[in-house]
Amino acid sequence: MRMKRFKINRSWFLFLALLISCAAISQDSIIRTPSLILRYFCSDNKVPYLFVQSKWKVGKKYEPAKGIVVKLYLDNDSGSNLLGKVTTNEDGDAKAIIPPTLKPVWDNSETHTFIGISEATKEFDETRIEAAITKTKITIDTLTDGETRSITVNVSALNGTDWVPAKDVEMKIGISRLGGILSAGDEDTYTTDSTGNAIVEFKKDSLPGDVKGNIVLVARVEDNDQYGNLQIEKTVPWGVSFTPDNTFFNQRTLWSTRFRTPAWLLFMAYSIVIGVWGTIVYLVLQIVKIKKLSKNTTT
Amino acid sequence: MEKLTSLTTEQITRDLLPQKFGRRGKIWTGILILICLVGAFAYYRQLKNGLVVTHMRDYVSWGIYISNFVFFVAISLVGSLITAIFRLANVPWRTPLTRISEMIAVSAITFAALIIIVDMGRPERLLNLFIHGRLQSPIIWDVIVIGTYFCISLFLLYVTLLPDIRIMIKAKETLGKPFSKLYRWLGSFWNGEANQEKIRDRVITILCIIIIPVAFCIHTVTSWLFATTYRPGWDSTNFGAYFVSGAFLVGAGAVVVAMYIFRRAYHLEKYITDRHFDKMGRVLVLLALLYLYFNVNEYLVPAFKMKKPEAVHLTQLFAGDFAPLFWFAILVGMIIPIFILVFKKGRRPLPMFVAGVMVVVGAWFKRYLIVTPTLLHPFLPMQNVPESYRHYFPSWEEWAIAMGSLAGALLIITFFARVFPVVSIYKTLTDENEKV
Hints:
heterodimer; A: alpha+beta; Immunoglobulin-like; nine-stranded mixed beta sheet; four-stranded antiparallel beta sheet; 4 helices; B: mainly alpha; Formate dehydrogenase/DMSO reductase fold; 17 helices
C-alpha cells in the first residue's frame, strides 16, 4: 500500500516537472529578440546606399520592428564618420545614402566597413552590426551572332587603383519581369570565371516586350559577403512587340467607364428623363399661367 | 361623409382648418424634436469620428441606414396609390385620404434622400455622384428617380393645396397671423376662377398620370440595387414587383395609422368615417395578400431548389439567427393583419389602427431582413476575418440616427398638419355641393 502511494506520488512529481519544463520551453519560445540587418546596395554603378532592417525574433518567426532609430557610420563609429541617422518604418525598413561630405573617406580605400548602431529603447536593446564591402564595378554586355544571342556580365573589384576581375561571384542573370527576374538561360544562377565574366546564352525567345519589343536584361548579385548587393540593367530589343488590346475596354458596355455608356441606355435614360422633366417644366409653366390669369383679372 | 350634408360650409371650413397644438400635440412635437436632436448628435459623432462609430464593417456595409432608406422609399409610394390611382379610377371616397397620403409621401421621400447621405459617411462627396456618376449604375438611376419623385410629390401636394390656401388666407382672423405670410406667398394668386380651375385640374391629372410610372420606377430601381447582384436573397427577377407590392402595403398601412391619429387628434369623425376605414381595410387586406403572394414566390422557389448559398441564407432566415425576426415580420406584417382585416369587425377604426401599426412595424423589420442577412454571407469570405464582421447589430449611433430620421419624417407631417388642413377643405365642400 505504501509502495503504491509512493509510486503515485512519484508519477505526480514527474508529471509536474514535465508541465513546468513545458511551460518554461513555451515561455522561451515567445521571447522577443531584437535583430538588425545592414545591407549594401549599388545599382548601375551609381550612388550606393545602405538598407537597414530591424526585426523582432518571436519564437521562430520574424516581425518588423518599427520606429527603431539607427545611426550609420562609415569605417568607425566616430561622429565625423556618421553617415546618417535613420528610423525604420512600419515594415522595419530604412534607407540611407552616403553623403557627399564623406566622399574623401569613401575614395580613400577600396574596402569599407559600414557600422549600424541602434538606439536603445524600452524593448529594443542597443544593437551593433557591421557590413564590410569591397568596391566593385558591374557591367553588362550583349552579343548577337546570327540567331544566337548571349549576355556577358563582368564584375571587377578595386584593388589599389586597379580594377581586377572578381571571380566566383554568384548572380542572377535574366529578364526583368513583374515580381522578379526570369532567368535568361537554363540555370537559376551563374558564377563569374577567373576573368570576372559570366556568359549566358539567351534562350527566352518570344517574350512579350513593350510596344517596340524592348525587354530589360538584369544581372543581380544578392547578399554577397564581399561585394554586397549589385545590380545592372540593359534594355535590348529582343522581345516581341506587344500592343495592349484596348478594344475590350473601348466598347460601350454596362461595365465600361461613364464615357462609354451603351447607346441604347443613353437613349432610354435621356428619353425618360427628358420626357418626365419636360412634363414637369410644362406643368410649372401652367402654374405661371395661372398666376398671370390672376394678374389679368386684378387689372 | 354621409352626415356632412347637414353641415354648413362654415362648419366644414372651421372643422378642417389647421388647429393650434394642444397639450398632447406639444408633448408629441417635443418628443419628436428630442429624438431628432439625439439623432443629430449621433450624426455629429459619425461625421467627427467616421463610419467606424457604426457597427457596419467589411461584410455588412449596408446596415440599418439602407434598411431605413428602403422603408422610406416604400412608404413614399402611398402618394401615388391614394392620390393618383384613386383619382384616375375615380374612387369617390378618396377625398379625406389624399392630403394625408401626399404628406406622408413628401416627408418619407425627403428622409429617404437624407438617410442615403448619412450612409455615405462623407456627405461632401455627394457631388461626386453627379460629377463622376456612371449612367450604367442603378445607383445613379436611383438618385435621378428619387429626385424626380420628390419634385413631383411636392408639386402634386402644392397644386392640390391651392384652393385651400385661398380659404386659409380668407380665414386670417380665425387662424391668426403666424402663417398668413406663408399662405399669401404660396397662393395669393389663386382666385378660384373657372379658367384657373380648369388649368389646375389638367395639371393634377397630368401629375397623377406621371407620378404612377415614376413611383413604380423609384421602388423598382431601389429593388434593382439589390437584384442586379448575384447574392443569395437578392438575385431575383421577382424583386421589382415584390418591392412595389410591399411598398403599397406599408404605404396603405401608414395612411390608416395617420387617418386614425388625425381623426382622434382633430376630431374629424364626421370626415374620416368608419366607412373610410372599412374601404381602406379592404384595400389593405388585398395589398397584404398580394405581398404575401410575392413573399411565397420569393422564398418558396429558392427553398425548393436549395442551391448551396441560398440554402445558407434561407436556413438563417427560417431557423437560424434571424428566424425570430423573420417570422415576426411575416406574422405581424402580413398574416395577423390579414386575419384582422378580412372580418368586418376588424375594419373598424381601432382594429384597423392596430393592424396598420402592425403592417408598418412588420415592414420596417422586413426591410432590415432584406438588407442584412445576405451581406453576412459573402460568396468569397475573407480569411481570418474578425469575429465582429460575422455579426451585425447596429451601434447606438446607428439606432439614434435611424430613429431620428423616423422622428424627422413624423415631425414634417406634424408641422404640415399644423400649417395646412389634413383634409382638403375645398374638395370636401365641392363633394358636398355635388351631392346636394
